[in-house]
Fold each of these.
Amino acid sequence: MTSQEIMNQFSLKGKTALVTGGCYGIGFAIATALHAAGARVVFCATSEGSVEKALKAYAAEEMTDVKGYVCDVTDEASVQKLIAQIETEVAPLDILVNNAGIIKRIPMCEMAVEDFRRVVDVDLTAPFIVAKAVLPGMIQRGHGKIINVCSVLSQLGRETVAAYAAAKGGLKLLTQNICCEFGGQNIQCNGIGPGYIATQQTAPLREPQADGSRHPFDQFIIGRTPAGRWGVTEDLMGPAIFLASDASNFVNGHVLYADGGVVAYLGKQP
Ligand code: NAP
Ligand code: GCO
């Protein structure tokens, strides 16, 4: 292969990508990265307000061709309608990023089963619903990339996040299973496992204390991360481009941790 051919493997020119929950945070960064690599990008969020705000944010970054749709990804009928609409109005989907997610930090014995079910619904059942909606088209066209946004909590636990860890652990295995079931049809399904990333979702864990000192969880994460810092959403851009592109055509069923080393680390010795 020539140098040009090797670098072209990372290009997403001519591809169309859907990023669920791509209105801010990690989803916005991943959508921006895929766009920069040449993809046509669409996203969905839960309300008209979220979509409009995000479209302004994309336009401010000179991405005026990004399209946004309202869709609750836990609602199968709405998702089926969304995929049909995107494939008619924009183009058939080559790339799906299952990014939309929520967390509820509640000690397990105090957690209502409704809260547990809602987290599993958004973080695990919804990726199944959206993948199920895009897969027939991908199979028909003979290629497809599905990226599931997992977590270091896909393989680690901690207090108060039973539902989230169960859902993200399940998402890791859903990722492997999609690989097993559709790998023979040239579909690659991989996960990105972010570490602790500074976004709205983790803001309560980083709030300074009343006396101006760092939040104890903030200090805990810095000590637990070999890189010695929180991640930023830009840390997920390279992994997303790689997993969406032809450069990863023989990578399947894998979770790529972009976590500053958290899952490799036992913690600082005393
Ligand atoms: P965030 O800032 O809270 O953003 C979550 C996004 O998901 C929003 O765009 C939200 O849109 C969307 N969303 C939530 N429920 C939805 C639903 N039912 N249907 C459609 N969209 C929905 O979160 P983030 O930190 O960027 O996290 C993004 C993903 O990365 C999540 O899956 C999260 O679990 C995962 N993750 C985060 C971290 C971290 O440290 N931040 C680490 C590992 C993994 P609306 O505003 O319209 O509701
Ligand atoms: C927590 C964090 C995590 C992160 C992330 C870690 O409460 O432990 O919020 O859930 O969001 O998923 O990778």
Amino acid sequence: MSDSTPRVIQIFDTTLRDGEQSPGASMNLAEKLEVAQALSDLGVDVMEAGFPIASPGDFEAVREIATSIRGPIICGLARCNDGDIDRAWEALQKAQRARIHVFLATSAIHREFKLRMTQDQIVERAVSGVKRALSYCDDIEFSAEDAARTEIDFLCRVVEAAIDAGATTINVPDTVGYTTPIEMAARIKALLDRVPNIDKAILSCHCHDDLGLAVANSLAAVAAGARQIECTINGIGERAGNCSLEEVVMAMRTRSDFYSTSTGIKSERLVPTSRLVSKITGMDVQRNKAIVGRNAFAHEAGIHQDGMLKDRSTYEIMRPEDVGFSKTDLVLGKHSGRAALADRARELGYRLTGEQLQALFDQFKILADKKKNIFDGDVAALIQQQISGAAVPGWSLVAYELASGSGQAPSVKLTLSMEGKNSTEHVQQGDGPIDAAFWAVEKITGIKLTCQEFRVSSASLGRDAIGEVTVEVEHEGQSYRGMGASTDSVEATILAILNSVNRIITEKSLRTANKVSPQDA
Ligand code: KIV
Ligand code: ZN
């Protein structure tokens, strides 16, 4: 390869695994499938679909994604033990291209306090894990968990042994977000210089953002020779999150003069994918977030605006349309047809089935009777409501009446039905309408809820915009999310509470005693 040919960097997306581990971001099957399709449309090379041994829900999601998504490599995570690896393969086997990702901690801190294993035992376990995975498929990634804090001599030894055993990708995680760009580059360089069989594997980096350095560290790894970056949409993930896909990709693209790299990412899908993940996980994107934040391309200062009018390049290093900000918020209305709606949904990052589109169209028509102009945000809210509701069948709202006013205790009369049958009615007073709604839902469903967070936002422009309510509730020590959307904000609140109750019911029926997370490994 000549110096002028860009090096191709593989984008390994772990939104559905590490991203989903961020508090409050858990997704159900329908939501994961929606995100998986969007990631495939975005052009990621590898999609880590989950950690199959962690729970039946994780297993099911990896299996469904492996069965239905074509294009990217579908990857499943496993610790270095037979049970995890066998389960991962069980979930992955229908994939067009499957990867088993085995991991084992290598740092002294983890060896001593978590695993209580010697260096020799770690090498032996890593080798046997890679070999077991290799008995199922030939694309094997080995991660040396906490690699950034591992003694470099020992890291080189483990990596060499894992490659000898058949690992085709070696991942260098900065599990606790501790390293710095110079150190990360030195670590990658040391591995490239000192591991004799390193040419038989692709070196990868996986950086967490505890010090706000995940993107910088990943770029440093690439500059030093890494060929894969592990990242998530909007940088979601454990604690402060992971390397943000949109930032790292656009940094390499915008500064291709410096990095001389390319990726297969369709950059104009970045904003729609970011919005979709934000809506599905209920995790807002900060306004000033690089690349995908609402203000990322807003020029406020007069001097900047003047410069922009003279020549955009004075203050603009990327064009908004390159990352998928549409120039206009196309307005739909009463007379818009199904095709225009389907087109809008696609633009917004959703791939709807015929049945979903019909249900959306029905709701769209009802909305169009209430509201003259329907904006992108309204359409996204309707779709989201449908996805999150359809994914968790259970209690639904039949009707509500609210009595409230100055000097009178608010009261809600609520009628709910279970799976469309057996309507139950309850009248409840509360400190305010929201409080009364929570109490009434608890009384009818028998599910106790502690409200941890309550957010209302407007989905689009105008006083008649759809209101989106997100609640985070605690039930038996676990957090659950709920979302509701309506032009009536009390109704949106009740829908959000019901959505969280239905998630609790679904999760309870799926849960098994032995749910584990990588941090338990
Ligand atoms: O951060 C980490 O070390 C991980 C591994 C499982 C790759 O997520
Ligand atoms: Zn991680």
Amino acid sequence: MFIHNRHRRLRQNESIRSMIRENHLSTNDFILPLFIAEGKDVRVEIPSMPGIYRNSLENVVKEAKEAWDLGIKSVNLYCKVSDSLKDNTGKEAWNPNGLMQNTIKAIKDACPEMIIMPDVALDPYSIYGHDGIVENGRVINDATVDALVRMSLSHAEAGADFLAPSDMMDGRIGAMRDALEENGFDNVGIMSYAAKYASSFYGPFREALDSAPVDTMDIPKDKKTYQMDFHNAEEALREAIADVEEGADILMVKPGMAYLDIVRLVKENLQVPVSVYQVSGEYAMIKAAAEKGWIEHDKIMLETLTCMKRAGADLITTYFAKEAARLLNDR
Ligand code: PBG
């Protein structure tokens, strides 16, 4: 038999496979999400996210240092504040002595080269669990953008390197960029959640932050009026183009595994760094199936992360960052 193209020739052993490999996972690719809680000596594991903790400040600093020592260059920060600090305006979000602001300073002190990316959205500070201010049963856009701008400036003042707005309000990137420029924060970047879908994959995260939308009359019970409809792809491109025009430095697509077509679409059409978020539900599914012995944890972890790179992601926000880094460092 004479076959012109024997594709298997390039797969016949690990040496040749490793030589022609197209994509490589590295610790430089990872952004580690960290959950911060009020109080002292707090370290509570999130039931649906084994290995992930809600930490008080001194413990979160330890986690950040460990991550840095493993080669991880960036952290995303999320705070859980007590109900007494929540209202409809989310004003605790820009308290200069708030939990987020103090965490940013503490991590900067302990780990000055770590790229700190605080989450910008009102939901952990909202009595209604929404990413915006609620009025007459609706999440209102422009007043929310004003609040996000105040929040952004307080993060920049505390020492944030990049702001990570995950709220999906319209026009917020431009408003944030203007405010940063006007206030001397021209070096502070924006990683915009450009295509963030209204997804059921966020369940465990909302448990971690106690931030699910409340089920009360006259309050929207889901986030579908601002997060995207998962039936749509073209719309993601419109969102992405708008965010680049408004001044975003990095675009985020979220969730990850079920949305890799969107990563590819954005990457192919806009030559900007793209980041993908392997969200809490994806992490939970892998952990749960592995616990049952139904899948091989480490292999599935590295496969999913590598496939995100193959889809076009430059960066991956993942709860697996430390575990994956350990494996990569041992290779
Ligand atoms: C909130 C926010 C969410 C996530 C990141 N920022 C939840 C939501 O939109 O309800 C989800 C992350 C995850 O599931 O891991 N602004």
Amino acid sequence: MHAWPASEVPALPGQGRDLRIHDTATGGPVTLDPGPVARIYVCGITPYDATHMGHAATYNAFDLVQRVWLDTKRQVHYVQNVTDVDDPLLERAQRDGVDWVALAEQETTLFREDMTALRMLPPRHYIGAVEAIPGIVPLVERLRELGAAYELEGDIYFSVESDPHFGKVSGLDAAAMRMLSAERGGDPDRPGKKNPLDPMLWMAAREGEPSWDGGSLGHGRPGWHIECVAIALDHLGMTFDVQGGGSDLAFPHHEMGASHAQVLTGEFPMAKAYVHAGMVALDGEKMSKSKGNLVFVSQLRRDGVDPAAIRLALLSHHYRADWEWTDQVLRDAEERLARWRAAVSRPDGPSAEALVEEIREALSNDLDAPTALAAVDRWAAVQKEEGGTDTGAPGVVSRAVDALLGVAL
Ligand code: 5CA
Ligand code: ZN
């Protein structure tokens, strides 16, 4: 699948900083030292509805990861998937009487447009579940050969007990896992499973649903977790730097994915850091396509909201915090954008060197965007009150805000 066009990332004076980031698996910060090529996999959308502010906030967090690494002059190999066949997509297409392929294409196109408008850097590989099927089948076959998978009425399940490290990503107890499995696409109550938590690897063809020839697996379609594992292993290999997504993916999705990969390769861990963004709510509840309490990026754009203001609204919350989208959040961001634009449009200002270092320091410290915004606010306020003599400063500030925060002033 093609991704979306990259906005330019201006080079900055001075030295970028290594990223220290909170890892869900260890429950603390890890300093990543990726070498010359940093590798990151971020779970993509299930394209049955438009991009809402929750999705945008999560992709914003991982865009910052890329920008911090690029600032250290590293290359970034960023991979993202599109879950373009799955139960929620098929159910929505059925409900609305539309073709599921057309629905997925339409929403993926809209997602690309939203990401472009928000200046999110594109992945190097953008891969759909459907196009990944030829790579998924041999992995499921291999898991069967290893005794880590079993059949139940034609469906094939992964045995969580085959991975001695199972549970290390989320650190949850069995009761919590069982509850979340039921809520998030699992089927813990299905009779005949070896362990209620075992996730499906391959679902045998169902009447009226799309299916593919899975060779020795029979006709069917892939499970959700193996989709991301196949794509990640194919394009990044094992022990990549960051596995990312919203906090609702820590269990079961990233837990199961890590176990699949660890059993398949015999290596541990799948990722050096499991990084999870907080949940954005609207009217007191997590914004979600299934609940329908949504604010869409595309709707705000149609209403004439500047994408840079949307981006600043996202940046004004720490990525790990759960927060509530309100009109006030957006109004504050619009005012901040206007203040910053006024500041960088003046011919000179106070030196920008210290500010660039403050932004770098804040972002390298677990992507602390609110602290970075506060630093720019202070520079803009001083500039307004006292002016300055450095004719290069406004240019450096606007390049730094673009390169490190993805906001075009
Ligand atoms: N296709 C799968 C991942 S392989 C999926 O979860 N798709 S999704 O469309 O439901 O979500 C896409 C990303 O947005 C995920 O990382 C998810 O954790 C994140 N996300 C969904 N809702 C919210 C929300 N309310 N706040 C923050 N992030 C969210
Ligand atoms: Zn995923």
